[in-house]
Amino acid sequence: MGLYNPGEIEINDPPAFEMEEKVRLRKMIRNDGTFPGKEIGQTLAKKGDVGYVISIGTYLQMYYIYAVHFLESGIVVGCRRKELVSVDNPPEVVTSNSHYLIDN
């Protein structure tokens, strides 16, 4: 779960992550102006931060937005699938000779 294809309409398929699933950020998230009480550009969560999906919504009738509660900071941030990887169910990478789990 959590693999990303930029040209697809995500909501044609089930969400990549489930409610209460433990996820890790693939990249730093900064305020784009939609997070109240923080300056635009201010860091909201850092690459590697771990949190839990607490709700799932949609954006532009194309993408799922996952509200992730980051326990260490106490902040809840809306994230796209491409910004997250599952800790509970890491994706498998298959090579011609063996299987490896992605450890982000």
From TrEMBL:
<comment type="similarity">
    <text>Belongs to the NifZ family.</text>
</comment>
<dbReference type="InterPro" id="IPR007415">
    <property type="entry name" value="Nitrogenase_MoFe_mat_NifZ"/>
</dbReference>
<dbReference type="GO" id="GO:0009399">
    <property type="term" value="P:nitrogen fixation"/>
</dbReference>
<protein>
    <submittedName>
        <fullName>NifZ family protein</fullName>
    </submittedName>
</protein>
<keyword id="KW-0535">Nitrogen fixation</keyword>
<dbReference type="Pfam" id="PF04319">
    <property type="entry name" value="NifZ"/>
</dbReference>
